[in-house]
From TrEMBL:
Subcellular location: Cell membrane; Membrane
Protein name (record): histidine kinase
Sequence intervals crossing the membrane: 21-43, 88-111
Domain Histidine kinase: 173-390
Primary location recorded for the protein, binned into one broad class: membrane
Length: 397
């Protein structure tokens, strides 16, 4: 059943506005024709009864008889006119009702025909995404307002494609170029520390700190490269990938970190139906980032709950962690690059702020999405939704 809200939204569409406009125009035309028809009919009736044919044939004997005959003829003429008026009114009402239905139908047909090019442009524009900006509408036809709109959209897509391409190229080139001096700095530091002379304690401490900072910058560059690659358009046509297997592998790889922080892990990824399809390297890195976020930004003695399931043609991964109550407005920003919560809220000040933004980019590149929620009891809920596929479609991850 259609709700009043849906009907109200539908009534505000351009097609229905055009239908009402054209229908009203057709209906007013019909009303005008009926009014003219009624006026002509009444005038014709009056003209036809201006002279009664019976009066010319009957020759009254006296004046009183003539007056009585005239009265009778006038009464008969009034009855005839009243009957004709009722018939004309009834016919007009029926014609008006039919004209109203015909006007709405004609208005809808005309509106649909007028809006057909716009619907074609809308459908084509929806098929064009950030990963398919090279496609153009290329609407053929006369140089009218619709073609001008399509050409304007094509120009906008061309500028967007150039902008996205330049941005991705800059990020990739800058990340590659910056890795060369980082490698040189790390090699020089290792050579300096490997000299046979005793190294002062302060120098050794400084070297360890520099190595840590270099590793942090290296991870940041790696995140840049992965973010650029995921946004470059990882096709969802790839290898079948099991979310449950990947989560179990990620937890096993981080067993030492989990043990060091005394975390309790609830692994509910026994559902083997949560499969998707795509680039296995990017999908594995996406899940690694989710698990890393749950482990690193967790308090000592905390807990982690992981679950995968298939629901409504979607493969879902849900990772929950405990902790203090978080602000939903700040949590919603974590999917953007370089957005982090403060250390007193997360239990850690490490990280580049790219982890969850990479998760969001990889999920979107595979036709999915990332949902971040602050749990009312405290902590964070991370949910990744991806298109569901069959486990028999490929090899497990």
């Amino acid at each position: 059943m259609r709700t009043p809200r849906r009907l109200a939204m539908r009534a505000r569409t351009v097609r229905w506005r055009f239908t009402a406009l054209y229908g009203a125009m057709f209906l007013m035309s019909g009303v005008g024709l009926l009014v003219i028809n009624n006026l002509v009919g009444l005038w014709g009736t009056q003209s036809s009864h201006a002279v009664s044919p019976g009066a010319a044939q009957v020759q009254p004997a006296t004046f009183e008889a003539a007056m009585e005959l005239n009265r009778l003829l006038q009464a008969e003429l009034s009855q005839v006119r009243a009957a004709q008026s009722r018939q004309l009114l009834a016919g007009s009402i029926v014609a008006l009702a039919v004209m109203a239905v015909v006007s709405v139908a004609l208005g809808r047909i005309v509106a649909a025909r007028v809006l057909r090019p716009l619907r074609t442009i809308t459908a084509a524009t929806r098929r064009i995404s950030a990963d398919d900006l090279h496609t153009r509408l290329a609407v053929a036809g006369p140089a009218d307002e619709v073609k001008d709109l399509a050409d304007t959209i094509d120009g906008l897509l061309e500028r967007l494609e150039a902008s996205f391409t330049a941005q991705r190229r800059f990020v990739a080139n800058a990340s590659h170029e910056l890795r060369t001096p980082l490698t040189t700095m790390r090699a020089s530091l290792d050579v300096a520390m490997a000299k046979p002379e005793p190294v002062p304690a302060q120098t050794a401490a400084l070297a360890d700190r520099l190595r840590a900072e270099l590793d942090r910058v290296d991870r940041l560059l790696e995140g840049f490269l992965l973010l650029a690659r995921s946004r470059h358009g990882a096709s969802s046509d790839g290898t079948a990938f099991s979310l449950g297997h990947a989560v179990s592998a990620a937890l096993d790889a981080r067993a030492a970190d989990v043990s060091d922080k005394g975390l309790t892990v609830h692994d509910d990824t026994v559902d083997d139906h949560a499969w998707t399809r795509g680039n296995p390297t990017l999908l594995a890195r996406m899940i690694d980032n989710v698990i890393d976020n749950a482990v690193k930004h967790n308090h000592d003695g905390g807990w982690i709950r992981c679950a995968t399931r298939a629901e409504d043609q979607r493969a879902l991964l849900v990772v929950e962690t405990g902790g203090p109550v978080l602000d939903q407005g700040q949590v919603a920003l974590l999917a953007q690059p370089f957005q982090r919560l403060s250390a007193d809220r997360t239990g850690s000040d490490n990280g580049s702020g790219l982890g969850l933004s990479i998760v969001a980019a990889v999920a979107e590149a595979h036709g999915g999405g990332l949902d971040l929620r602050a749990r009312p009891e405290g902590g964070l809920r991370v949910a990744v939704s991806l298109p569901l596929t069959s486990a028999q479609a490929g090899v497990p991850a």
